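Notebook entry, structure prediction.
Reason for the run: the old model in the group folder had no record of what sequence produced it. Starting over properly, with the input documented here first.
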Amino acid sequence: MSVQKIQDTLNSCENALCDAKRKFDSGNRLIQSKVSRSIDLFGGTATSQVSEIAADCRRLCDNLYATCQTHVAILNETCRPLLEDSIPITSVESIWKMICKLNEESEITNNFTASLNSKNMGDVATVQYHPTIESKMIESYWEAKYKNWPGREKYEQELQDAKIKKEKEKKEAADKKKNSDETAYAEALAEWNEIAEKTEKKRQAAIKEKEEQERELTIRKIEANLEMVINDQEKIKQECTEKLEETKTLMAGLRFYQILDKKKCQKAINDLTARVNSAEQTIIQARQKHDEDLQQLDKIVKRGMSKVKASIIKKYPLPRKPRIPLSMRFSDVSPVQLVNEAMKTDIIDTLVKNGELTCSELQKKCPSLGDLTLARIKNWVDELEREGEIKRKEKKVDGYKQTVYTLAY
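New structure, fully documented this time:
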């Protein structure tokens, strides 16, 4: 019965303190809203407004102080007679700690300052609240009772042993999880490496096949271009040669007095000869270009394969690479780190499905990022880039540069 009565009294004190602090915080917000309003110094109400705010501050502090000090007295009056019932040391310790807490909450400073045109005018009123001498004596009394209680040293030793045991169990559990994570990560990484090796072989085989096809196609194209140029120019040469012979024959049959006709024939002969020479020169240039293209065949094939390689990589995608578990990177994992890791995993999964994406596109395509700001998403993306999981590159879209992110593997 005594233990239950002590526990009920402690719960009552805790509830009263929480309620008083809640009211204090609520009143403080109300005072802040009053303070944020402008006070008309020449309207005749400035003094009453300032006095009202100061009185509110004092009332808030008085209420919190009175609650704390009253419950110190109540707790002492209720529990002191129960000491004769041989209550356990845990109850004595709880009473002492609650009295210490109430006295600490009674340490209140009420600073009421003023300012004019954003310039600080100093303190208007400063009030310090301290626990009463009686409350401090009650605290000392219960502290002495606890320290002189039979079996205290054994109780504290048991607490210390329990704490050490708990830390040891926590460390063993963390080590066990770390070992488990290391094993699972090693297996997942080995499986991923095997898949990556097979995928890379498929990619290389497909690329090699496409390169051979591209090479044959390029050679046929080069040969066809040369053949087309030669045929066209040979046809021009033949036509010009035939006309040249006809013109020469015509010119040979002209009389000496047909000077104007001779000039026309000579001009035609010169033009036809120039066209024949031009055709021969074009053939020579075409052969030279043919030889140069054959010499630069590798470069031409490489240029043609740039888009083909991208399509092949997309056709044979790699699964998401296993990430190093948090337990292997940090000795103690916080809830925030768990959330960050989950978000990073979602980002990587989204890039696996969609390829290159900007931060804005990531926000739209990844459901877990929809309500977050671009700044937070950018922070996670930068961390992934530093970890070597993703890479960035500049891309021109409609004449503007865009930063896009893609997987690093």
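Summary: The first helix runs from residue 2 to 35.
The old model has been moved to the deprecated folder.
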